[in-house]
Amino acid sequence: MTTLQFYFDFISPYAYLASERIEALALRNQCQVVWRPILLSALLTHNQQRGPAEIPDKRRYTFKNLLRLCHDEKLPLQPPPDHPFNSLLPLRVSCLRPQAGLIQHLFRACWKDGRPIDSSDALKDLIDEDTLKQATSPEAKQMLKDNTQQALDAGVFGVPTVVVGGEVFWGFDSFPHLERYLQGQDPVDSSLVERWDRLPASASRL
Amino acid sequence: MTTLQFYFDFISPYAYLASERIEALALRNQCQVVWRPILLSALLTHNQQRGPAEIPDKRRYTFKNLLRLCHDEKLPLQPPPDHPFNSLLPLRVSCLRPQAGLIQHLFRACWKDGRPIDSSDALKDLIDEDTLKQATSPEAKQMLKDNTQQALDAGVFGVPTVVVGGEVFWGFDSFPHLERYLQGQDPVDSSLVERWDRLPASASRL
C-alpha cells in the first residue's frame, strides 16, 4: 500500500486545512497516511527564510486567503489567542502518538475552537498526563529533531507537505495535483525538469 | 469601470501564466487592466525574503508545480536559457509602453519561446530601437523605482499580484478568489481579519 508522509506543524493554519482532508484523500486512493510532526521554524531557519506570519503584508493576506479556503471547504476557523505560538509541546506529543485522531483533535482545538495548545496547562484537558510528561523528555525532543531532519533530507521546505515515492507536494492547494499523481497522471515532463535544474543563473541578488 | 492593477516581473513564470489570463478575466467582469511592471527582487530585499528560485528545493518544486499548471491551462512552457536573469531592461521597456500586447509579447518570448530578454541585443528583434534606447534613460529607471515603491505601499509582497479597490490578490491561483470578489461574493469576514491583525505573538523566531 502506498504511504503518504504528511509533514505538518500546528502553527500552520494551512496544515489544519490539510489535516482535515488528507485521510479522505488517502482512502480514495488506497493509500495510508503517516503523520509526521516537524518544526516549521527549523525549516525556515535552514533556508534563511521568513514565514508568512513574519512579513506583515503577507501575514494579513495569508489569513484572508485562509478564510476564503475555509469557506470553500466548509471548515470552521477560529484562530488561537496568540500567533505565532510555540508549537514544540503539541509537536512532541504528536511524535509520541502519531495518530490521526489525536493530531486532528489538537488541530481543531487550536484552529476550530481557537484554544491555546502551547503549554502543559493548555493541553491538560486534551492529552493524558503521562503523555504530556513524556513529551518533555529528551527522547521526545530528539524524535521531533529527527523528524524535522528527515523532512529537510526529503526536500521539504514548508508545511503542509505530502511526500510520496520521493515526490513532494507542498501546500493544501497541491492536493488535486497529488491526487492526479497517485492516479498515475502527473503531467510533469522530467526532461524539462532536468533542463530547469541545470539552467545557469545570469543574475544573482544575494 | 473598475481597474485591476496587475503587478508583474518577467522573472516570474507564474506572472507569465497570469499575463495570459488576466485580460480575459477583466473582460468577463467589466474591468480594465493597468499593467504595472515592478522589480520582484526589490520586494524580496525589502521583506528580507528569498525568492523561490533562491532556495534549491523550492526552486525545483516551483518548476514542477508550474508544469502542472501550464498543462491544466494548456499553455506552452519553455524556460529561458538562464534563470534567474536580469529583468531590468524589459521592465523599463514596459514602464515606457505599459500595453498588454507588448508585455505579453515579452512574456511569451521568454517563457513560451525560451528566448533571453535581458539585454538590448536579446530585445532588438522584439522592441523598436527608440524604445530600447529610452529604456536606459534615468527617467525610465525612475519609473520602475516608482512603480515598485507604489506596489510596496499597496501591500504587495510578490508577483503576480492584482490589486483592486485596495484588496490584494497574490498569485495565479488567487484568480478564482479575485473573480468572486469582483462579483461581490468574497467570503472574507472583516471582523475576523481585524482580530487576526491584533493577535499577539507569544513566540518569535527572529
Q: How would you explain this protein's 3D organization?
A:
Chain A is an alpha+beta fold and 206 residues long. Chain A has a single domain, classed as Glutaredoxin (3-Layer(aba) Sandwich), CATH 3.40.30.10. Helix content of chain A is 51%, strand content 11%. Chain A contains ten helices and four strands. In chain A, strands 2-1-3-4 form a four-stranded mixed sheet, sandwiched between helices. In chain A, helix 1 packs antiparallel against helix 5 and helix 4 packs across helix 8. The model of chain A has no long low-confidence stretch (mean pLDDT 95). The interface between A and B is large, with 58 and 60 residues.
What is the distance, rounded to the nearest whole angstrom, between the alpha carbons of the first and last residues of chain A? 44 Å
Pairing-aware structural class of the strands and helices of chain A?
alpha+beta
Shape type of chain A: globular
Radius of gyration of chain A: 18 Å
Order of helices and strands of chain A: EHEHHHHHHHEEHH
- Counted by DSSP, the helix tally of chain A is 10
Query: Which parts of chain A are unreliable, with pLDDT below 50 for 5 consecutive residues or more?
Result: none
The major β-sheet of chain A equals:
4 strands, mixed
Helical residues, percent of chain A: 40-55%
Mean pLDDT across the residues of chain A is 95
